[in-house]
Design a protein that fits this description.
By secondary structure, the chain is mainly β. The chain is about 0% helix and about 35% strand. The chain has a five-stranded mixed beta sheet, with no helix packed on it. The radius of gyration is 13 Å and the shape is globular. About 5% of the residues are buried.
Length: about 70
């Protein structure tokens, strides 16, 4: 099966019922990371904190050029 990443999409999707879904992809890091496609089309990675015990989540713009295949 392998690892994947999770993507949420804030951009309007063609099928409104899919808007609340989380999608899986193997086109990014494949490290069980969480990403969001923002309303302005940016891909943002939600990275866990830094030192051990830090639970702070940082949003990092993740530059990518091309397609990402999403599976529900």
């Amino acid at each position: 099966m392998g690892l994947f990443d999770t993507v949420k999409c804030e951009l309007p999707l063609p099928v409104p019922e899919h808007q609340a879904l989380e999608f899986q992809t193997k086109d990014l890091q494949k490290l069980l990371e969480d990403y969001t496609i923002t309303t302005d089309g940016r891909l943002v990675r939600h990275a866990q904190g830094g030192p051990p015990g830090d639970t702070h989540i940082r949003a990092i713009d993740w530059p990518i050029h091309g397609d990402i295949h999403l599976l529900d």
